[in-house]
Amino acid sequence: MDDLERLEASRGKFLAAAGITGAALATGAWKTRSAGAAVAPGPFAAGRYLLALDGAAAGFLASVEGGEIVGEVVSEPGSATYYQKKHIGNVRYGEFALQLGFNMTPSVYDWISVSLLGTYERKNGAIVAADFNYVEKSRREFHDALITEVGFPALDAAANDPAYLVLKLAPDRTERKPGSGKQLSPVSASKQKQWLASNFRFQLDGLPTARVGKIDAFTIKQAVVTDDVGAARELAREPGKLEFPNLKITFAESDAAPWEAWHEDFVLDGNNGEKAERTGAIVFLAPNLEDELARVELHGVGIVSVEPETGDSAKETIRRVVAEVYCERMEFVFG
Length: 335
What we know:
Layout: H1 3-11, E1 48-53, E2 56-60, E3 63-66, E4 69-75, E5 86-93, E6 96-100, H2 106-116, E7 123-130, E8 136-152, E9 155-156, E10 165-170, E11 173-178, E12 200-204, E13 212-215, E14 218-227, E15 236-243, E16 247-252, H3 256-268, E17 278-285, E18 292-308, E19 320-334
Antiparallel strand pairs: 1-2, 1-7, 3-6, 4-5, 6-10, 7-8, 8-10, 8-11, 8-14, 9-13, 12-17, 13-16, 14-15, 16-19, 17-18, 18-19
């Protein structure tokens, strides 16, 4: 039994917690987390995990979770025994949750970009587990995977923490395979610069945004419909609609007047047709705050609310305001 199988046998699913080195290599350990808990970077531990897409190495991941293979238990009705007879029915393949920065090859970000445009690309690939010497120990291959979520972290101008995307993949099928025993080669990625939660810029047409200090975490979701018609034990998945979330933006109170005027006109006066919506962008920057790593372009933006930020009245701090906006669609642009 190899390293990966021992971890699977004892824990059931995996999570690799890691940081990114200057060479864009990450380490982590697969472990269980509670349902709904966020994937977060943690201490270095045994193992390195490589993402491969369509037969090519795409880069080392900060963390990995999921990908479990589960047989669904069916209770047999009308059993003549004093106990409930059971058997395995359909096979369910769990989603993968991958945590990554901007150290991957462009194939990863291109996949995200086309998925957010409603072009549903399915990918084959693998999560490859290696030891500290980058020797491949085992792999979990996935087939016909769709992106179901793209999660963006909270951005805060006062933070110095590394920032990561969380990418969820729903495969039609996965399978375990032994490792090749060969040493993995470093992956050449187009961006080797670390992304920090403080390195961002926000833009929205016609509004002051230079003093935007925070943007709450947000997740774009791709609904997936399961095709359970027929006798196949492996259920096919088909994409549904994309769900783009509202954004919460925090900025200095000194910039509040134009936002409040927009809110009054758009919400209270009812001038909220398509022509009154705005466009904008969230731009992710390199540590020099000049080079652009990626951006999320915002289309069809309308304001929902503008309220003072809840704070501690006993402390002398800059007064801030929180605006909530809806967004009809978002596009992801890398580089």
